[in-house]
Amino acid sequence: MPNSSEPGTTPWWRDAVIYQIYIRSFADADGDGMGDIEGIRSRLPYLRDLGVDAIWITPWYVSPQADAGYDVADFRDIDPRFGTLTDAERLITQAHEHGIRVLPDIVPNHTSDQHEWFRAALKAGPGSDERARYVFRPGRGEHGEHPPNNWISRFGGPAWTRVTEQDGTPGEWYLHLFAPEQPDLNWDHPEVHEEFEDILRFWFDRGVDGFRIDVAHGLVKDAELPDVISSDNTRGYLDGQHPHWDRDGVHEIYRRWRAIAEEYPGERKFVAEAGADSPHRLANYVRPDGLHTAFNFEFLRCRWDAQDLRETIDSTTSSLWRVGAPATWVLSNHDVVRHVSRYGRPQHSWAPGENYRAEGPLDLSLGTRRARAAALLMLALPGGAYVYQGEELGLAEVEDIPERFLQDPIWERTGHAERGRDGCRVPLPWSGSRPPFGFSPSGEAEPWLPQPEGWAEYTAASQQGRSDSMLELYREALRLRREYPALGEGDLVWNDSPREVLSFSRTPGFRCVVNLSDEPCELPEHQRVLLSSDEPAGSSLPPDTAVWLAD
Question: In the 8-state DSSP scheme, what is residue 271?
C-alpha cells in the first residue's frame, strides 16, 4: 500500500470509508470468547473484499476492562486478552499489504484508576505533583463530605469519588466524567501534554495511520469547576462556555497533535469524537491547523425524515466546507442502538449528550428496508463514511440479553434503570448454524456476550454471493464508490422532488434518490440504475428505498 496519495490526488482521508472494529466482538482467534488482534488479522481478506479503506480499532491497550478498554492502564502496550505488541505490529504490516490503513483509539480524557500515575497520586496525597496530573479537589461541607460541584457522570451518578487517604481518613475527591475507574486527567498540567505527545509518536513509529480520539471535546475544564446550570448537564450555555464540554481550549492541544502527525510520511490523520452542539461548533475541530475529520453525530441522530435529513446534510456540509474540511457520515457505532432497530420504530431524534431511548414496537422488516436505503444515502454523500462492524450484515440491536450477562457500566451506575450499550456490542456471526457462529473456534469458551440463536441467516458466510443480502449491497456500493468518479469528496446539488423524497446530483452524471414517503415515487428518465436498495418497480421507486442512477 502506498504511504501517501499520488501527487495531485485527494488525500486518502478526505473521502475514506473506515470500518469500526469493536475488538472484543469482531473475531476471536484464541478461543477465550473475546475478540483479539489475531482474530482481526484472520479477517483482513474479508475487510479487503468488503472494500473499506481503513479500520478503526477500539482500545487494545492494557486495561482492567472496567469500561471495555476505555479505562487504559498502559498506552504503550497491548492487553494480554487481545495479544501482544508484536501481534499489533504484524497486524499493521499485513493490513497495509491488503491496502487497509489502521487507526487505533486514543483516550486522552482519562486513564484507568490502575494507571501508574493514578496509583502514585493516591499514595502521594493532597497538594502533591502526582495529584496535579488529575483533577483532585477538597469536598464541600463542614467536613468535605459533599462533592466539589454538581457535575454528573455520563454513566449516571455523581462525577466525583472521594478517596481514603494513606492514614485512613476521608480525603479529597477526584473527577471522573465517566466511571469511577476512569479518573479525568488535568490538561492544564504540562506533563499530561508531554505524555500524550510521546504516546502519539510511539504508535506512529509503529506504522499506525492515525487515531480516533475518544471524548475529544472533554479534555479542558473550567478551572473554577462551577456547578452546571441545568439538570441535563449540557443545555443553557453559550458557545464554548460549558464548564467541561467543548471548551475552546481543546483546540490548542489538537494544533500541536496535527503538527506531530505532519512530521510523519503517509498523511497520518485524526478523527474526533466531538460532542459539539452544532455543525458550527463541530467545524472548530477540523480547521486547517486542527484535526482532519470529526464524526457527524447530527446525521446519526436524525429521524428517518426527508426534511430533517436534508437540513442536517446542508448544515453539515456548509459548516465544514467553510473551513476546508470534509464531512464524515455515520449511522451506528459501539455507543448507539443499531440503526436497523432505530429505523424500525416510530421515529424520534434525540439531543446531543442524550442516549437514544427505544419507544414503540419494533418492525424489523421496516428497519432493515430503511437501513438498506440509508446505506446508499450515506455512501453517496460527499466526504467520508464510517461503517460499524455488523451493519454490513444487517444486524439489529440485541434487546433481550439476560441481565446476568450485562457488562456495560451504565447498567450498574443507573441502578439497573438503563441496560446500556451491550446490545450493539454482541460478537459478530461469521458462519455456521448456531452460536458462536464462527466468532470463536468451536468447542472453546462461549462468547463474552451471548449471540441470538436466530443469527444463522445473518452470518457473513450465508450472505456471501446472495445478490439480495445486506453484505452484497455494501460490497457493491463500496466497489462503485471507488470506481465512479462522482462519489467521494465533491459537490452536491439538490434536485426538485416531492417533500418526502431526497434527490441530489453529483458531478459527473450521478444521482441518488431516496424515497422516504409512504407511496412510490417516479424515477428520473434517461438514467440507468447503478445500484438500488430494493428493485425499482418499473419507472417508480417503492417507499423506504434508495437508488443510484447514472447518465
Answer: E
Q: Would you call 191 a catalytic residue per the annotation? A: no
CA R_g for the chain: 23
What does pTM read for this prediction?
0.95
Residue 10 pLDDT: 83
Is residue 35 exposed (0-12), middle (13-18) or buried (19+ Cβ within 10 Å)? buried
Q: For residue 45, is the peptide bond before it cis, meaning its omega torsion is within 30 degrees of 0?
A: no
DSSP 66-88: TTTT-S-SEEEEE-TTT--HHHH
Using DSSP's 3-state secondary structure scheme, residue 365 falls into helix
- Cα within 13 Å of Cα(226), Cβ side: 9
Catalytic residue among 263, 399, 457, 491: 263
Q: What sign does the dihedral 441-443-445-447 (CA atoms) show?
A: positive
Q: What is the pLDDT of residues 49-100, one digit of tens each?
A: 999 999 999 999 999 999 999 999 999 999 999 999 999 999 999 999 999 9
By percentage, how much of the chain surpasses pLDDT 90?
87
Query: Cα–Cα distance between 88 and 234 in angstroms, integer?
Result: 38
Task: Write out 390-408 in H/E/C secondary structure.
Answer: CHHHCCCCCCCCCHHHCCC
Q: Is the pLDDT of residue 2 over 50?
A: no
CB 428 within 8 A of CB 393: yes
The string of DSSP codes covering 412-456 is HHTTTS---SGGG-PPPP-SSSSTTTTSS-TTSPPPSSPPPGGGG
Burial track 111-137 (b if 16+ CB lie within 10 A, e otherwise): bbbbbebbeebbeebeeeebbbbbbbb
Question: Cα–Cα distance between 429 and 66 in angstroms, integer?
Answer: 25
Q: Specify the pLDDT at position 349.
A: 81
In the chain, the N- to C-terminal Cα span, in Å, equals 33
Q: What share of the chain is helix, strand, coil (3-state, %, to 5)?
A: 30, 15, 55
468-496 pLDDT per residue, tens:
999 999 999 999 999 999 999 999 999 99
Place of cell 447503478: 530
Give yes or no: 32 in active site: no
Residue among 214, 273, 277, 335 flagged as catalytic: 214
Distance CA 322, CA 279 (A): 11
Q: Indicate if the pLDDT at residue 234 is higher than 70.
A: no
Please indicate whether residue 398 or residue 551 has the higher confidence score (pLDDT). 398
Q: Are strands 170-175 and 160-164 parallel, antiparallel or unpaired?
A: antiparallel
For the purposes of burial, counting CB atoms within 10 Å of the CB of 423, is it exposed (0-12), middle (13-18) or buried (19 or more)? Answer: buried
Strand order from edge to edge, sheet including 160-164: 136-137, 170-175, 160-164
Alpha carbons 196 and 332: distance in angstroms, whole number: 28
Question: What pLDDT shows up at residue 351?
Answer: 77
| pLDDT for the residue numbered 3 | 43
Sheet holding 501-506, edge to edge: 493-494, 501-506, 510-515, 545-550, 528-532
Residues 6+ positions from 195 with CB-CB distance below 8 Å: none
